[in-house]
Amino acid sequence: MDTPLSGRRVLIVEDEPMVAWxxxxxxxxxxxxxxxxxxxxxxALALIxxxxxxxxxxDLNLRGQMSYPAADALVARGIPFVFTTGYPRNRxxxxxxxxxxxxxxxxxxxxxxALLDLLPPSAxxx
Length: 126
Hints:
This protein has helices at residues 17-30, 41-50, 68-77, 108-118, 121-124; strands at residues 9-13, 33-38, 55-59, 61-62, 65-66, 81-85, 101-103. The protein is α/β, with parallel strands linked by helices.
């Protein structure tokens, strides 16, 4: 079945295996193709460099290491992303406070809406 997110290539950056697994299932249900899952910054950076990515879902804190380097790499490549975190928005660095953001735990509809906002229909048709 075709959905508005069908075929969109999404990277998961998440250090909690259960959350990554559930997010993977959620993205597949939306019609996305998961291009990889990273639970460390170095893995995320390698995937960003090696894969064609339409969007990414970034957990803010990966075992005590903030995912800002991955966000910077995505911005440099023009790849949209959404942060997911248990932290309130005001805990993000100032430069990232306007980035798309979902507070954990989030509902699947919130993730779907965030991805639809990141990947507008005109970009999906490309």
